[in-house]
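User: Please go through the entry that follows and flag anything odd:
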Amino acid sequence: MFVKINSEKHYLWRAVDHEGEVLEAFATKTRNKAAALKFLKKMMKRHGKPEVVTDKLRSYGAAMKEIGNAGVQETGRWLNNRVENSHQPFRRREWAMLRFRRMHTLQKFSAVHASVHNHFNHERHLVSRDIYKARRSAALAEWQAVMG
């Protein structure tokens, strides 16, 4: 995803799992094989090898070939929708903050935003109101215990 910092284009690499939770976020100035390789290695330390990469960016293919996991890049018309939809809450919060001024701030914010959003996102459309309210209050109680 593209993010402007002081009217200069930067790139935010994000790994999203099959449920839409953001696993990893990494900010760079470039969008090439070296940046993709750095991101994939960082992600693989925590989460292991990716099963599927759905982005059409050719840098992913080159980086995956170097890692030895070349056959996992799938590029279909709607395969990347889960990742693209995960950008929306981040974009709303970025707009409310009136953009970023430093790449370090972007990196820090994206990591914190991902973990907080994952904790409180309960997919309201899949459950009844009572279950949703119970899960939401449990998440809030857990959050207050962690922060308190």
User: Anything to note?
Assistant: The domain at 2-123 is CATH 3.30.420.10 (Nucleotidyltransferase; domain 5). The two ends are 34 Å apart (CA to CA).
